[in-house]
């Protein structure tokens, strides 16, 4: 395999593995803010206990996010040196802003979130939790801005030509608010909220099935269900807005998402299907003219197809783009159905009566994870063959000084290291879940219970 | 231009300050990790881990900021340096991964074998990270072969020259001294006594390798001290450095660990300033053909972006300063283990 293929595999692998964790951190961050906020508001121990339990899980997830994230910062330089030179003026600014505005905030207050429970007042601790959550949200802002600029470049001009060509910012805010930034950011944020909410749902559904920790599991489940229901629905809107944007800004990607080739015809919308690139046909279960309707509110209007683009300007893996996109959409729909149904049962007061529903929730933790990954794969593979849409080809973006053997060595190292990390992560996560939240004794509000309950409160594991 | 200094030079100063901040802050974390196995008792190891527990992650962020600052301000240098150092950089990064997970995973199981495994991983990772940092620093100071496209034109063998290896070992010795001093500040009783002895020994180790590296540099790579020799005003940097180095054993002897810590921090900063003075205005000197060197001018982003970056730094730095100080202040004093500790 050549440097390009290996570098693409390595980038995809390292970023996909990394992306298991940050959405969970963002989503759990939101849930922690809600839980700890409820604790401060009501003073009920139950909320303190659940907050402390999820902080422990948050620490583990956050740790892996940090460990795998630091690679990403440097992988542009190691493997994509030409890209780095080309976009440094723009992409680098976003990364620098992320470091100073997001990571510093997040990592600074993380120390207090994890270790400060007995050192600062509960209000300061709550403030730290909010800061960690905001830091993770800001981090998403800058990363999505940087990536969106690759999808829909704006606020720049090209200086120099040939090997020395590079993009320079002409308008910082036009670069930040490029045509796809806002739609994609809200889509990413909500995807993260869902990832976090479904983790909390899964763990608590498990406790409910096992008849353990019910006093904590039920209210925790309800908090997460509320978050999951609201944002499953909201995701439909941000998804639709993103698709509208893709139609305007990246027609080749839109055509690939639905496997649409013929520019003179109305475009269909598939529920599931298969794209045959050679025969330029797509077959499957479809709504005829559905994509035309989605974009133009009319079933007959033609939509630009892949044929409108030169073969070298089309995504090469059309079927993969199609499949990833459809997996994401199908999961989005499933999450809406699942959360609406559960919320309806909640309203009727029978939420926890159906064992099969709790079993589904235990496994549903995987759904937002898969949807998040599939969405990014569709977005990134759909942008090909460009690394910066219409400006720089992926094949031109490599490090000329790096040889295939070097990339192969690092790819093997990453594979081994990350597999080990994944196994250890799942092992420790499971251990924490099995151990469960620790109930503190419920003393009266004004006795000096703080100290003794803390001493007995061993979320600790030493 | 700002205060009579051009944007590129200003950004060089900002980048240098961030790198220095990283070396001082993560330097004590890495040093504490590298000496971790010298501490024998389970409780000592836990106290040592919890001494850096609430802060190491924030300290590592300085590296992320440094990476972003180089990428944004000097993309040509960012591209050349990391593609040149491909494998050392990967080893450095994988070392950082293991450092992070070792700290996080160690406390999650009570078994002595589990803990010993992670202690070894932790120490090994910190040593590897520190050595590869030092190796890269040595090579940047020395320069690398670059082609006309300002891309690396050497092989793996290029990195393993005597000077860079000596710089790597010196970095390790300095970080271990720095880490031992930090831990001494955060501990009490017998562990404190043990750390004071370790700090003194590491400091001797540092003095020896530092002297050897300096001697080697003066004898065999005299051009690395050209600029300091040509301008008497620059003598202030080696002077401060030597005073700070001399002050470390003095403060150690008196038991003033706070001052010793300041001295080791100043030593780290002064060493980096000395390198920066010699290197400037190059970011990466082309050892095969000086015309191919990457300088702060031919590597810089557009002036508009440099202005934006300086504004970002001007807004961001005070904020970072405020919450970093707040976190350090919250966890000031000797380490006390509680149920939230590692």
TrEMBL record, chain A:
Membrane topology field: Multi-pass membrane protein
| Organism domain of life | Bacteria
Q: Is Glycoprotein one of the keywords?
A: no
Where does the chain cross the membrane?
20-41, 53-74, 94-117, 124-145, 188-209, 221-238, 324-344, 356-379, 407-429
Q: Where in the cell is it found?
A: Cell inner membrane
> Does Transferase appear among the keywords?
no
| Keywords for this protein | Cell inner membrane, Cell membrane, Electron transport, Heme, Iron, Membrane, Metal-binding, Transmembrane, Transmembrane helix, Transport
Q: Which residues form a coiled coil?
A: none
Region described as Disordered: 439-462
Please report which protein family the annotation says this sequence is part of: Belongs to the cytochrome ubiquinol oxidase subunit 1 family.
Specify the protein name: Cytochrome D ubiquinol oxidase subunit I
TrEMBL record, chain B:
Q: Does the keyword Transport apply?
A: yes
For whether the record's keyword set contains Membrane, the answer is yes
Q: Which UniProt keywords apply?
A: Cell membrane, Electron transport, Heme, Iron, Membrane, Metal-binding, Transmembrane, Transmembrane helix, Transport
Entry's transmembrane regions: 12-39, 84-101, 121-142, 162-183, 204-221, 233-250, 257-277, 309-331
Instruction: Report the membrane topology from the UniProt record.
Output: Multi-pass membrane protein
Quote the subcellular location field of this record: Cell membrane
Family, similarity comment: Belongs to the cytochrome ubiquinol oxidase subunit 2 family.
Q: What is this protein called?
A: Cytochrome d ubiquinol oxidase subunit II
What taxonomic lineage is listed for the species of origin? Bacteria, Pseudomonadati, Bacteroidota, Chitinophagia, Chitinophagales
């Amino acid at each position: 395999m050549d440097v390009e293929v290996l570098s693409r595999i390595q980038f995809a692998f390292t970023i996909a593995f990394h992306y298991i964790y940050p959405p969970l951190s963002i989503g759990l961050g939101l849930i922690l803010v809600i839980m700890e906020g409820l604790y401060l508001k009501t003073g009920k121990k139950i909320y303190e206990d659940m907050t402390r339990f999820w902080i422990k899980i948050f620490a583990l997830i956050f740790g892996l996010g940090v460990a795998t994230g630091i690679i990403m910062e440097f992988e542009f330089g190691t493997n994509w040196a030409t890209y780095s030179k080309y976009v440094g003026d723009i992409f680098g600014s976003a990364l620098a802003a992320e470091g100073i505005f997001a990571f510093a905030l997040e990592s600074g207050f993380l120390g207090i979130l994890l270790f400060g429970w007995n050192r600062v007042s509960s209000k300061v601790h709550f403030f730290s939790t909010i800061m960690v959550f905001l830091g993770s949200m800001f981090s998403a802002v800058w990363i999505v801005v940087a990536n969106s600029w690759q999808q829909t470049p704006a606020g720049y001009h090209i200086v120099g030509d040939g090997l020395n060509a590079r993009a320079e910012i002409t308008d910082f805010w036009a670069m930040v608010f490029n045509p796809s930034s806002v739609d994609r950011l809200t889509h990413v944020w909500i995807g993260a909220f869902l990832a976090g909410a479904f983790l909390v749902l899964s763990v608590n559904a498990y406790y409910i099935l096992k008849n353990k920790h019910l006093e904590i599991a039920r209210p925790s489940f309800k908090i997460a269900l509320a978050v999951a229901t609201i944002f499953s629905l909201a995701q439909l809107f941000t998804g639709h807005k993103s698709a509208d944007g893709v139609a305007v800004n990246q027609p080749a990607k839109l055509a690939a998402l639905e496997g649409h080739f013929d520019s003179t015809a109305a475009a269909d919308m598939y529920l599931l299907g298969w794209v045959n690139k050679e025969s330029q046909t797509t077959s499957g279960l479809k709504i005829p003219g559905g994509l035309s309707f989605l974009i133009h509110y009319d079933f007959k209007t033609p939509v630009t197809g892949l044929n409108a683009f030169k073969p070298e300007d089309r995504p090469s893996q059309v079927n993969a783009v199609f499949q990833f996109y459809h997996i994401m959409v199908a999961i989005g729909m499933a999450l809406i159905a699942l959360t609406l149904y559960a919320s309806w049962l909640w309203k009727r007061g029978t939420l926890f009566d159906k064992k099969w529903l709790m079993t589904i929730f235990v496994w549903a933790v995987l759904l937002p994870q898969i949807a998040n990954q599939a969405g990014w794969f569709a977005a990134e593979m759909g942008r090909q063959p460009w690394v910066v849409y219409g400006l720089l080809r992926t094949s031109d973006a490599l490090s000329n000084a790096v040889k295939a053997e070097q990339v192969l060595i690092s790819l093997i190292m990453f594979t081994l290291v990350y597999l080990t990390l994944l196994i250890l992560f799942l092992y420790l996560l499971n251990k924490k879940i099995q151990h469960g939240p620790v109930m503190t004794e419920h003393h009266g509000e004004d006795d000096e219970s703080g100290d003794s309950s803390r001493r007995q409160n061993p979320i600790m594991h030493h | 231009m700002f205060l009579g200094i051009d944007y590129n030079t200003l950004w060089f100063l900002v980048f240098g300050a961030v790198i220095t901040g990283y070396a001082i802050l993560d330097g004590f974390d890495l040093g504490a990790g590298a000496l971790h196995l010298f501490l024998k008792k389970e409780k000592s190891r836990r106290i040592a881990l919890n001494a850096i527990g609430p802060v190491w992650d924030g300290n590592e962020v300085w590296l992320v900021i440094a990476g972003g600052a180089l990428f944004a301000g000097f993309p040509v240098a960012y591209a050349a340096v990391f593609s040149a150092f491909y494998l050392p950089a990967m080893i450095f990064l994988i070392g950082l991964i293991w450092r992070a997970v070792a700290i996080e995973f160690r406390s999650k199981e009570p078994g002595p074998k589990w803990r010993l495994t992670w202690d070894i991983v932790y120490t090994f990772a910190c040593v590897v990270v520190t050595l590869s940092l030092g190796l890269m620093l040595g090579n940047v100071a020395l320069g690398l072969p670059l082609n006309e496209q300002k891309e690396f034109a050497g092989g793996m063998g290029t990195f393993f020259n005597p000077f860079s290896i000596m710089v790597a070992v010196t970095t390790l010795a300095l970080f271990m001294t720095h880490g031992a001093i930090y831990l001494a500040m955060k501990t009490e009783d017998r562990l404190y006594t043990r750390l004071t002895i370790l700090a003194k020994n590491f400091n001797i180790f540092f003095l020896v390798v530092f002297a050897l590296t300096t001697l080697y540099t003066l004898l065999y790579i005299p051009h690395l001290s050209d600029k300091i020799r040509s301008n008497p005003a620059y003598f202030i940097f080696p002077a401060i450095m030597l005073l700070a180095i001399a002050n470390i054993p003095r403060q150690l002897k008196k038991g003033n660990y706070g001052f010793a810590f300041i001295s080791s921090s100043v030593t780290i900063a002064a060493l980096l300033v000395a390198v920066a003075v010699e290197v400037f205005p190059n970011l990466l000197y082309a050892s095969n053909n000086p015309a191919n060197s990457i300088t702060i001018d031919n590597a810089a982003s557009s002036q508009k972006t440099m202005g934006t970056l300086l504004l970002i730094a001007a807004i961001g730095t005070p904020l970072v300063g405020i919450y970093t100080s707040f976190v350090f202040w919250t966890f000031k004093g000797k380490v006390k283990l509680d149920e939230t500790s590692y």
